[in-house]
Write a structure and sequence with these properties.
Residues 1-48 are annotated as: Disordered. Residues 38-71 form the HTH cro/C1-type domain. This is Helix-turn-helix transcriptional regulator. Residues 1-15 have a biased composition (Low complexity). This protein is mainly α. It has a domain at 34-68. The protein has 3 helices and no strands. It has helices at residues 34-44, 49-56, 60-67. Helix 2 (49-56) crosses helix 3 (60-67). The chain is elongated.
Length: 71
């Protein structure tokens, strides 16, 4: 009795190798982005971007980029 190797999936059958482009707009009721949630959290606690950045060991410009959704 011979052993038959398992079948392989055809090329391209797996997940995409490059990012899928973002959808135009967000569906109604979509959760806020991480940046929006971070901004709300920071403002609720009365922290400036500079103070949050210092507490995390990052540059304030990085916090701005994250909150704006650019990172």
């Amino acid at each position: 009795m011979s052993s038959v190797p398992p079948a392989r999936a055809p090329r391209g059958a797996g997940p995409p190798s490059r990012p899928v482009p973002p959808a135009e707009g967000k569906p109604a009721g979509a959760p806020p982005s991480f940046g929006t949630a971070l901004t709300r959290w920071r403002e609720h606690r009365g922290m400036s971007k500079k103070k949050l950045a210092a507490a995390m060991g990052y540059d304030p410009s990085y916090v701005s980029h994250v909150e704006a959704g650019r990172h």
